[in-house]
Amino acid sequence: MRKSCYSEEFRKEAVATALRSVSVTQTAKDLGIPSATLHTWVNQLKSQPKATKKSPDNEELLKENCRLNKELAKLREEKEILKKAARYFAQEMPE
Questions:
Q1: Whole-angstrom distance, CA of residue 32 vs CA of residue 26
Q2: Second label for 58, Cα 20 to 30 Å away, from 4, 22, 39, 76?
Q3: Looking at the 3D structure of the chain, how many domains does it have?
């Protein structure tokens, strides 16, 4: 049996069609290709890492971490000031 060569475009279109349909086997039959071949293409596509947007590099993460630490320190300082003010005003209240 001779091994058929399919173009990359045909493979991508076949996989996309198979993923949209209910049955990969039926899609293969409709396209006139062996179902095992289409299953292989689908599995290869699923095993490939998905292209995602560029993840932030280490330097960006360090900058963000530094910024967040500064913000946290500022908020903690504000919290302490408010605690002191609350204690001060609680002492002045006439009983």
A1: 10
A2: 76
A3: 2
Q: Which amino acid type is present at position 86?
A: A
Question: Is 95 found in the same domain as 74?
Answer: yes
Phi-psi region of 32 (alpha: psi -120 to 50; beta: other; left: phi over 0): left
3 found inside a domain: no
Residue 18 near residue 24, CB atoms below 8 Å = yes
Considering the entire predicted model, what is its pTM?
Answer: 0.48
Same domain, 41 and 71: no
DSSP state of 52: -
Stretch (H or E) spanning 12 = helix 8-20
Q: How would you label 59-82 residue by residue, b for 16+ Cβ within 10 Å and e otherwise?
A: eeeeeeeeeeeeeeeeeeeeeeee
